Amino acid sequence: MKNKIIMIISVLGILGGIVSAIFSSFAQPALSPAFKPAENPYSTAIYAEGIVESDQPSGENINVYPEVPGTVKQILVAEGQVVRKGDPLVLIDDSIQRATTEQQESAAEAAHAMLEELRAEPRKETLDVNVAQVTSAEAALKTAQDTLRKTQASYEMDPRSVSKDALDSAINAEAVAQANLEVARKQRDLTKAGAWEFDIQNQEKQYTALQKSYLAGTALLSKYTLRAPSDGVVLSIATMVGAYVSSQGSYESYSQGMTPVLVLGAPQANLQVRCYIDEILVPRLPAPSKMKAQMSIRGSDVKVSLDFVRVQPYVSPKIELSDQRQERVDVRVLPIIFKVEKPKSVNLYPGELVDVYVGQ
């Protein structure tokens, strides 16, 4: 009985294998491609990968980085928004720098007030006091002189009428009064002369230094507002309110690297395509006057002719597309820039990779 069961299972397994072999021998019809792959439109051509960029004089987008670090306080634009040169884009918290700048302004104003005070000397009220002191000293001298004259006259008439000490005291009092008058007159003249020239120069230097410090603080304060360096379109914003940014950019959580806070491009009616030609193929490039190119947009059957703009005459490592800073093989490429009018039949944005054939 056991042998019969084994025999039945074996026969069923053989039959199942035969059926599976028959069905697998039938060829399945291939699925039609979603789009036509890129084809060479020229008799002889060079293939290159390209990346779509904004139509900038340099051929690249503008990466906006803050010059000062801080926490993002407000984002004033949105992706896709058209901006003009000088428009504010992002506000960074400037509370500390603003307080510092106000302190510098107050110090400069105080130094300027002191300078104006020195220039305005002599002060009338101070001069009036000195003049009054001179008048008082003159009166005191007159009193001392009268006392001395009377004492001397009495002494000459009768030496016993006035003691020698009284006469000496009168002589000393007159000398002191004379000295006090000289001091009062010199003090009046000093006040009348105004501030010393060197004091004014020193205060001018202090005011200039504080004023420049305030201007530097104001200039630094303005850096806390990121502004558009030129007319363009906001392509991407890589930060948010409350995030920390610095001169290295903003931390991107997906790539775990630093990225520009904003990326600006030119209005996207016209775009540019930057192609990277392998250095081995560079000798086969046609002359610029004869160069033609066609771009294939990936994911579609759209093919667009490109207009030659220029060659960037510097062969560099091919890290632009992969962003790999460490490569075992040093593959170098020559960038060539073409201009293209944005097709209306398909979406095309800066940053897309395209297939390009360069011929003549």
Write the layout of secondary structure elements.
Blueprint (H helix, E strand, L loop, with lengths): L1 H24 L19 E10 L7 E3 L5 E6 L6 E2 L4 E5 L2 H26 L3 H34 L6 H30 L3 H26 L2 E3 L4 E6 L6 E3 L2 E4 L4 E3 L2 E4 L4 E9 L13 E6 L5 E9 L4 E2 L14 E10 L11 E7 L1
Antiparallel strand pairs: 1-12, 1-17, 2-11, 3-5, 3-8, 4-7, 5-6, 7-11, 8-9, 9-10, 12-16, 13-14, 13-17, 14-16, 15-16
Helix pairs in contact: 2-5, 3-4
What do these coordinates show?
The protein has 360 residues and is of the alpha+beta class. The protein has four domains: 45-55 and 267-359, Elongation Factor Tu (Ef-tu), domain 3; 62-93 and 224-265, OB fold (Dihydrolipoamide Acetyltransferase, E2P) (Beta Barrel), CATH 2.40.50.100; 100-118 and 200-221, no CATH class; 122-194, Orthogonal Bundle (Helix Hairpins), CATH 1.10.287. 39% of the residues lie in helices and 26% in strands. The chain contains five helices and 17 strands. The chain has helices spanning 2-25, 95-120, 124-157, 164-193, 197-222, and strands at residues 45-54, 62-64, 70-75, 82-83, 88-92, 225-227, 232-237, 244-246, 249-252, 257-259, 262-265, 270-278, 292-297, 303-311, 316-317, 332-341, 353-359. The chain has a six-stranded antiparallel β-barrel. Strands 6-5-3-8-9-10 form a six-stranded antiparallel β-sheet, with no helix packed on it. A four-stranded antiparallel β-sheet has the order 2-11-7-4, with no helix packed on it. β8 (244-246) and β9 (249-252) form a beta hairpin. The protein is elongated, with a radius of gyration of 47 Å. The mean pLDDT is 85.
